[in-house]
């Protein structure tokens, strides 16, 4: 038997980002860098083939995918190591030390390709192997030589431009100009999105046969690249009858990473494209494996909104922070239910599997529907952006949580007229106040859920900022010509009553009992308050108002006007005795 050679290309993404950061953001340069997402790895594979002459004899080829190859060779280990060292040093020089070539060779002691692949993975990941590579090329690595800038075309061999009419050519094209104020300017906010595919490693390690491993590896390479992304955008635009073409600028799409910029009015649509991509890959994996693989790929997505003309490395740092939040949440809290986890400017959303989760507070599709409803209410002048912005300012200026909550209650206080139980304005206020309801513990707890004041900073403020952004005319799409009906069920009416009336009153009364108990004890006022309010426990702690007739208050008013205010408590006490049986 001969020897096995395994070579893997590392840090391509880092190299691409470095090129983006260090290059002028002109259209030609960005196009070349974008094209390099897949082509850097392909070019290196070409170098490997040239050195070892692999492809003409395909029976020796075990794996040949972008960024990785495993093959048989009749050369001795010494000859293989020399060739790999030569390749390593050439790649190191060409790509200015930004790309690392890992290689290993071992004797073929098995005819099972799957066993060979598994051993190759283990050997490539072994830290000892990396140390040996560094030792073999230490003279080059520790040379201090001037970096010569090579022609870009050496790196980027654009073979295919299927996507040239799909993607934008430069960053300035992302900024939406306001015809009233921004004539001739490319300033403005843009969206940066970075997605990471989860469970790839788990799926690959669960594949039992070589043929299956090879098929799935090729499938993933074909589905996660710039051409595939462009195809999904075109298909989505046709199916949904929306214009998503020439609204996206990809930076890097390969491996398990997708990184791009888009116009703000296209954020929702591009996230839907990502969902379609991951759904499509999961479906094909099931078809290839005859449903034997139970693990599904999921997607974590980070979204930030930034001003144009900032360095791309700054965008990347911000979006990777959001991405890390989305990854943590989907892995720890939503691993079984969610297909896509999204962290968008401090707001968490999920796309659930099998079309479920629409009723969940963090449902992505629910949020997109809410934005349309809020746009409709804005057009109907149910509220103004200025009012919402003033609420945001007051919440951010105030430091004490309770004062923030009191201001929130004041801003969202119900304003009912003509005997209406619910109306559009009340629904608008309910929408915001409902963000502060305590989370369910999941246990059979009959106690009433109150307000969680921590949610003002963690949930309410980020959501107001996000909504204000999407409500801006220059960043939003036109509404469909439909009649929006916000309140569709009696169940929702019941929730509105609870959130807008019962819970605020219960909170205020409970807060008053806690804060003013000692003071009231001194002044013997507890008895008087208890005449008007009853605490009743019926599974939930409720504060009930005593049903006094209006005539009693007129009599009390007369006593006070006649200088007999000391008789007022006894007046209510006597009346209270009469109605106790009703409560």
UniProtKB/TrEMBL annotation:
Which keywords does this chain's UniProt record carry?
Antiviral defense, Nucleotide-binding
Q: Pfam families, alphabetically?
A: Cas10-Cmr2_palm2 (PF22335)
Question: Single GO molecular-function term?
Answer: nucleotide binding
GO biological process, any = defense response to virus
Q: Which InterPro entries match?
A: Cas10-Cmr2_palm2, Rev_trsase/Diguanyl_cyclase
**Residue span, Cas10/Cmr2 second palm domain:** 190-330
Q: Does the keyword Cell wall biogenesis/degradation apply?
A: no
Name by which UniProt lists this protein = Cas10/Cmr2 second palm domain-containing protein
